[in-house]
Design a protein that fits this description.
Length: about 350
């Protein structure tokens, strides 16, 4: 197999056939799409953080692409990481059909030969449900790096199995059903109360303003990257993916949720509500309204609560999976070897403590 390897410092430098690989990836998750990465780059990277895209192409239509980034101003150890952060629910190498472990190894090879050398390479959050995780782990090891896996977070999701909202609702815990029924009735008896779902058009900017207003009155901490969410809303609307739900009481926005519906999958990305309206359970009322829409109108096959094991997610979802990361150390550098040794000793320590506890 004759493989060509490319290293780019912008998404625009990718060849058209390589950009096409992202179209397949976005069918898996919206945060593997080119619009996601473009907004991520425009709004979240620090002044000294740089993009690096590694591409391996076998010339027969199979490609493996690794969108990565690093901080050129950081002191040692030198770290390369996946183009992801706390907004990212899923990261994966962008691969075309038929691209296997060998091609992934070619894409990774420049990471070993870059000068000066990287001490540490980090990929997260990754799915362990397909063969990609093991292929990446093995490819790193075959390059002479020392990989270790680590837990990132739990992920709750719902397999719809063709159900309508009414059928789904009947399967919810009785406590949640009663809350939704009682609080919905209470909510709509209030003068001017309404629920909107914004998908695009000239409502986008007012929707962003209302979302920001709700977020500012919620319990949530200030966004570290204030341009990211507005950029995501605009990009999602352009793709036809946006479901921005907003609850209003007497004309004022009191709850907001960002759902992203793409390729048969609804992802619940952000939710917030004005704490003064907690007695209305406006979050649950709005969630039920959006759930009805994605099941009965969008007819999705899966609903995904994305990041975290929050207790309330168990009530709405039916299954749990995990996202893991891989950190690989370079034994050819002193700091890389030290990092691997620290990981190994930490693993032995956890094993011993678990054994003693048992």
């Amino acid at each position: 197999m004759s493989v060509k390897v490319y290293c780019h410092d912008s998404l625009e430098a990718l060849a058209g056939t390589h950009k096409a690989a992202f179209e397949g990836a976005e069918c898996v998750s919206f945060d593997l799409s080119l619009p996601w990465f473009a907004n991520f780059l425009a709004t979240t990277l620090g002044p000294q953080e740089r993009l690096r895209v590694y591409v391996a192409d076998d010339g027969e239509g199979r490609v493996a692409i690794l969108p990565m980034c690093y901080d050129e101003g950081a002191s040692r150890p030198r770290k390369m990481r996946s183009l992801a952060n706390f907004y990212t629910a899923l990261y994966a190498p962008i691969t075309s059909c038929g691209a296997g472990e060998e091609l992934l190894g070619h894409a990774l090879a420049p990471l070993r030969s870059d000068s000066p050398q990287w001490d540490e390479i980090d990929f997260s959050p990754l799915s362990t449900e397909d063969g990609t995780f093991n292929a990446l782990f093995n490819a790193l090891r075959n390059l002479g790096l020392l990989p270790f896996k680590y837990f990132c977070f739990g992920n709750w999701y719902l397999l719809v199995d063709g159900r309508s909202y009414a059928e789904y609702y009947e399967g919810l815990p009785s406590r949640l059903r009663n809350t939704v029924k009682r609080k919905s009735k209470q909510f709509f008896t209030d003068s001017g109360a309404r629920l909107d779902i914004i998908t695009g058009g000239d409502q986008i900017e007012s929707g962003i303003a209302d979302y920001n207003k709700v977020y500012a009155t919620s319990w949530k901490v200030e966004e570290p990257f204030p341009g990211f969410i507005p950029g995501l809303i605009r990009a999602s609307a352009k793709q036809g993916w946006l479901r921005l739900g907003i609850a209003y009481v007497r004309g004022e926005p009191v709850a907001a949720q960002i759902w992203i519906v793409a390729h048969g999958r609804a992802a619940i990305f952000k939710l917030a509500y004005d704490e003064k309206f907690a007695p209305y359970s406006v979050g649950s009322v709005l969630s039920a309204h959006l759930m009805r829409h994605v099941l009965d109108v969008d007819k999705v096959r899966e609903v995904d609560y994305l990041i975290g094991d929050d207790a309330y997610k168990r009530d709405w979802m039916s299954r749990r999976r995990e996202r893991w990361g891989i950190v690989a150390y370079n034994p050819r550098t002193l700091l890389g070897l030290a990092g691997a040794l620290k990981q190994t000793l930490g693993g032995w320590r956890r094993f011993v403590l678990s054994y003693v506890k048992r």
